[in-house]
Amino acid sequence: MRPQEYDGVRLLRPLPQYDLAVGAQGTVVMVYHEPGLPPAYEVEFADDDGVTQALVTLKDEDVEVTWRADI
Asked: Which of 5, 18, 32, 61 sits in a 20 to 30 Å window from 38, CA-based?
């Protein structure tokens, strides 16, 4: 399932430049749709206190949806 804004996602590859390991949990805060290009996702990774640790633009293959709000 493709991520949507406010979905919880799990990182599928390490991002050592941000000190993020495989399995890190984040929240999609923006979905980018450009004609002719694959979608990209701005994902916020925060610590247990809610302090942002990294804000990263990722591709479909980098994340997996783990939570979606029921609307």
From this structure: 18
Q: What angle do CA 20, 33, 70 make, to 5 degrees?
A: 70
Site of tokens 């804004």 = 5
CA distance 8 to 29: 10
The answer for residues whose C-beta is within 8 angstroms of residue 23's C-beta and 6 or more apart is 10, 11
- pLDDT above 90 covers a percentage of the chain that reads 94
Q: Using alpha carbons only, give the angle 2, 11, 58 rounded to the nearest 5 degrees.
A: 60
Each residue's pLDDT tens digit, 21-48 = 999 999 999 999 999 999 999 999 999 9
> SS3 of 16, please?
helix
